[in-house]
Amino acid sequence: MIILFRWLLNAFFVLLGSYFLSGVEIASFFSAMIAVLFLSIVNAIIRPILILLTLPINILTLGLFTLVINSLMVLLVASIVKGFNVSGFLPALSLSLLLWLGSMLGSLLLKEKK
Question: How far, in Å, CA of 92 to CA of 90, rounded?
């Protein structure tokens, strides 16, 4: 149930990004859900490899290069999923920051009381 809630919340933030960010276009809520599904798969498989390969530059930039990697993951998913278009690097960076904000909000909402 928690995974479904996070999936829907992230799809909502992708839709929100398409409304407020120029350069991000989404055809429908279904396309947003598919984009979030592919983004989670790409983040689970490709992102750790890229972070490991770019570790020296990531250390030099104090972790800020991770934003570049997240933006590249958004651009990769936009090239795969039909109905999800991102026109450049800056819209992808803005969308990845918005998705980070949505993930943080979801974590706060689903935080278990100990």
Answer: 5
Residue 18 lies in a domain: yes
DSSP states along 41-85: HHHHHHHHHHHHHTHHHHHHTTTTHHHHHHHHHHHHHHHHSTTEE
On whether the CB atoms of residues 97 and 68 are closer than 8 A, the answer is no
pTM of the model: 0.89
Residue 71 belongs to some domain of the structure: yes
Q: Identify the domain containing residue 13 by its residue range.
A: 2-104
Give 17-72 pLDDT, tens digit per residue. Answer: 999 999 999 999 999 999 999 999 999 999 999 999 999 999 999 999 999 999 99
Number of domains in the chain: 1
